[in-house]
């Protein structure tokens, strides 16, 4: 389903094209495309170039690890994510690699890496849906994630599927118009709440 962003100002077509559907096709993602996604994430920017991200990923043909990832999701997300051919966790390192001190920007940087991955997915005609609806404690226990790292999101990746394969309530959400707050509500100048003139 084509569902581009309706823009107030011109943006790159790739950004307008990117969205987070829940309807996935079960078709596997080619291994070279998967590698390209994580190569894109690798080249994301980060504080001190520390690259404080880790991804735990499983494809559907890796049935054991795929099920382990699926079991970390909340039931509402399992209902649709179980069709996606690739599931993963996005994990942020808590400390800098170069000095071991706390990295206050680790989660921010891991989020940037995930965003870069998602844009690369859009460039390859793939879709990705990031989720906060997962059990971090279960993920930590299941995948032996060390105390020095924190799982911050789950992600489903694949080819877009048919909306009518979703439960009725999710079909409505899938076809609802995409909305965003106006720029004037979050781009300020001078002081908080004072909208920048160019927006």
CATH architecture: 3-Layer(aba) Sandwich
One letter per element, helices H and strands E, the order comes to: HHEHHEHEHEH
Number of domains: 1
Class from secondary-structure proportions: alpha+beta
CATH superfamily: NADH Oxidase
Q: In what order do the strands lie side by side in the largest sheet?
A: 1-2-4-3
Task: Characterise this structure.
By secondary structure, the protein is of the alpha+beta class. It has a single domain, classed as NADH Oxidase (3-Layer(aba) Sandwich). Helices cover 33% and strands 15% of the residues. The model has no long low-confidence stretch (mean pLDDT 95).
What key attributes describe this structure?
199 residues; alpha+beta
Reconstruct the topology from this structure.
Layout: H1 13-17, H2 31-42, E1 53-59, H3 63-70, H4 75-81, E2 86-93, H5 106-123, E3 127-131, H6 136-143, E4 149-158, H7 168-175
Antiparallel strand pairs: 1-2, 2-4, 3-4
Question: How would you summarize what this structure contains?
Answer:
The protein is α+β, with helices and mostly antiparallel strands and 199 residues long.
